[in-house]
């Protein structure tokens, strides 16, 4: 499990990864315009404000686009034994987009429009990444 490439944790994105390790989704929200911001940044991409706070968004969303990974690209053989798997871009209900693997459904059955909830997958000690599971 430890052979999977690990995310690069920086002071800017550390709150996200700390929360992910606890299996909680934490994203930035702009205190000026109120929009949710993903991925972590130093200023709001919508209004330019640097006044961002970390908040817990709703954990549900709708798949915007999906692809099925069948071959290893780059040097990440640790993922190979889990292939094929679906990777989706998800429009979260609070208005930001995030991507991750979709677990709990056959890859070929994952479709745009499918409702999902975020979950977390431990990929190493103290490191978890967001994944998505279809809502019933
Ligand atoms: Zn803003």
Automatic annotation (TrEMBL):
Domain (ChsH2 rubredoxin-like zinc ribbon) spans 17-53
Looking up InterPro entries in the UniProt record yields: ChsH2_C, ChsH2_Znr, NA-bd_OB-fold, Thioester_dehydratase-like
Query: For the ChsH2 C-terminal OB-fold domain, which residue ranges apply?
Result: 54-121
Q: What is this protein called?
A: Uncharacterized protein
Instruction: List the top taxonomic levels of the source.
Output: Archaea, Nitrososphaerota, Conexivisphaeria, Conexivisphaerales, Conexivisphaeraceae
């Amino acid at each position: 499990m430890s052979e999977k490439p690990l995310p690069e944790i920086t002071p800017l994105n550390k709150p996200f990864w700390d929360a992910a390790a606890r299996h909680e989704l934490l994203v930035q929200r702009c205190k000026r315009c109120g929009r949710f911001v993903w991925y972590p940044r130093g200023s709001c991409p919508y209004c330019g404000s640097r006044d961002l706070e970390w908040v817990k968004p709703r954990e549900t969303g709708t798949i915007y686009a999906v692809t099925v990974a069948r071959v290893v690209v780059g040097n990440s053989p640790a993922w190979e034994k889990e292939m094929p798997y679906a990777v989706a871009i998800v429009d979260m209900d609070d208005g930001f987009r995030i991507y991750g693997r979709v677990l709990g459904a056959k890859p070929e059955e994952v479709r745009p429009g499918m409702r999902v909830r975020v979950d977390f997958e431990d990929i190493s000690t103290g490191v978890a990444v967001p994944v998505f599971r279809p809502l019933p």
